């Protein structure tokens, strides 16, 4: 929907379906003529008026939408961090157990086929832990910024005043 107004009478707003176009301006002109004929227009347009003279009324861009987007993104980043932390914690014990078994490969100690098979099965857990741990460390760096965004959004006016005074 597009809205038009007149420079001579900005309180009059004429809404028209669609985007700004010649056709939309003509529809707004029809509405303007109806208002004039009904005597509801307080402005005198005796010098004439054309559809090109309409002023498109744009809705103000809400500054909060950008802040809302950054808050949503921050929460999503922190949620991802929480999921990665759980995954790392859940696989840590198994990965450490497998890691100690790997040390047996570097000794002269005899290792059975069952131990080797068990070790090979454990490589999947070790790999999963290592990848999750790396992703967690990377996500943690991002999450620091996300936490700062949320802290700022949650800070009350009194706290902002106090923080500004300390600077």
Distinctive features:
7% strand; three-stranded antiparallel β-sheet; 2 domains; 3 strands; elongated; 167 residues; 4 helices; mainly alpha
What does this protein look like?
The protein has 167 residues and is mainly alpha-helical. It folds into 2 domains: 2-57, no CATH class; 63-156. Helix content is 65%, strand content 7%. The protein contains 4 helices and 3 strands. It has helices at residues 22-37, 63-102, 113-154, 157-166; strands at 2-5, 13-16, 55-57. A 3-stranded antiparallel β-sheet has the order 2-1-3, covered by helices on one side. 10% of the residues are buried. The model has no long low-confidence stretch (mean pLDDT 85).
